[in-house]
Structures are given as structure tokens and as C-alpha cells.
Amino acid sequence: MRYVVFGAGAVGGVIGGRLHAAGVPVVLVARGAHLDVLQRDGLRLETPEGTEALDVPVVGSVAEAHLRPDDVVLLAMKSQDTDAALDQLEAVAPPEVAVVCAQNGVDNEPRALRRFRHVQAMCVILPAAYTVPGVVHQFSAPLAGVLDVGRYPRGVDERTEQLAADMHRASFGSVADPLVMRAKYRKLLMNLGNALDALCGWEARGTDLYARAMAEGTACFEAAGIDVQTAEEEAARREGVRLLEAGGVTHPGSSTWQSLARGTGSVETDHLNGEIVLLGRLHGVPTPVNEALQRTMAAAVRDGRPAASWSVAEIEALAASL
User: Fold this and answer.
1) Which candidate, 153, 272, 146, places its Cα nearest to that of 220?
2) Is the peptide bond before 153 cis (omega within 30 degrees of 0)?
3) Is 106 helix (H, G, I), strand (E, B) or coil?
4) pTM of the entire structure?
5) For the chain, what is the total number of helices (H) and then of strands (E)?
6) Range of the domain at 89
């Protein structure tokens, strides 16, 4: 089974690099300066155990990967870029390919299932960063992260079992979980703090505002009848993932912080906090904190404000007004 990693940033770059290092067939799909450096110099993977220079095959579009029916296409772009990626994929992929959503949020899988019949959901617990073209950082070792996987909307099949085995071979914890979306909903609760730390700094996750955002999410899940992995289950799966220094740097912050710091012009907040706002509106649950975070993040991107340039008090004031 060959893996086509569509989106070779932090998560995609680490997963692709680790698979390649383990001898699993991989091709990365990258763009811009990142593509140029990868084609010229290869992938530099910084880990707590040292630097790895990896000559991973890389192409500039998914069409150039010349997809085969037994390929696995691993979507690793941010959720706001999923529809454009699926447009490109649908134009060139055999209908038998497996599509794996290795992304935050819970709305990528249904969008993929509209186009492809074989969709796998992957819950990503992987402290990683991509800020410089050609370089990705993996901040946990020897276990690089946890990548549990299952068919969407539920179940496992032979591909699921092979996915879990290949991820395990590549130094990730991974199990074939028929109810993996329970874990993805738990991860969504944690990701509700991404906008907060991007806007106000990492220490903002220790404030009451983060707890309130998660409480709104929990209330929405209960109102919608959504089954969610317990905190104890999540902690047990996360065991072995440690935040360590890699390449002389520490983990810089959430994926949303990284997007804002790099000035990418878009973030995935509408698919994280916005998911809770949507559920709240559908089921009559107030979600002022998540709406305040969603609105403020949209303003930050629109105005080009840098990361950590808002105060917690500003977000609290907006939430109180909604």
C-alpha cells in the first residue's frame, strides 16, 4: 500500500517522513517554497533524538502522483482547504482509493464521503510544527504520536488494520478503532483552545475562558446525542506522547497559532469553534465563548494581526455581549 500525503506541512510532513524512514512507500504532495526545498534538499525532520535527512519522493500536485486503486491518500491540510483538495483529488483518483482524514475537526470525513466510498477517520495526537520550508519538527519521542484510525462513519476493514500496522511500524501508537469518531470529538473539545492560544498566548489555556469553551462544546454534544470519548480514555491513549525539545526549539503552539504566526491568510477556526456554534444553533445551546473566539479569529486574519495580540479580557467582553 502506497501513501500519498496530500499536505506535507507539520502533521503530513512528520507522518510522511516517519513512514518513509520505516520503509513504507510514500509520496508527499507539497507546494510553493516548501516544494522547492523538498525537491532540492529533501525533508529535514527534527526530532528529540536528532536530525534526519530524508529523501522522500515529492510532487507539486496530486495529479503528479499518478494514483492507483490501492493507494491511500492521507489528507493532512487544514480543514478550510479540504474542499479544494477534494476537487483536485476527485478529478484524478480512481474511485477505489482510500481517503484518510488526518485532520482536526469532525466535518472533513462527511465531505470526503460525498466523493469517495472508502473514507477512514484518523484521530491525530501529534505535537509537530512547520514554520520553515523543507523542515518539520516532531516534538515527541520515541513515540512520535498517536494516530488511531477507523472507517467513517464506523467500523474497520483490512485497510484500517494495515493503516494501524504501518503507523505502528513508523513509531506511532495506532489502533484500528471502529468508533474512532468518539476520539475525534474529544480532540475537538481540546482544539477549542486553539483560537484562544493563537489570539492571547499559550497561557490563556489556563484561564476560565478555555474551560467555558469546552463546557459549551460538551453541552452541545449532549444536546445532539453525540457519543464522545471520555477524558480518561483520551489520557490513556495519549500516554507516551511527551513534549520535548527538537532541533533546539520547543513546541511553539497549536496549529492555529502556527497558521496565524506564518501569516497564511486562513485558519481552521470555523471548523473547530464554528462546529460548536453550529451545533448550538441547531440544538438551542448558547455558545457565546466559541462564537467570540470564532469572530475574533476572523478579524485577526482579515486585519493581519499577529499571534498573541489580543487579551483574554477582550474575548471575555465580546462573549458577554453575545
Assistant:
1) 272
2) yes
3) coil
4) 0.96
5) 13, 12
6) 3-178
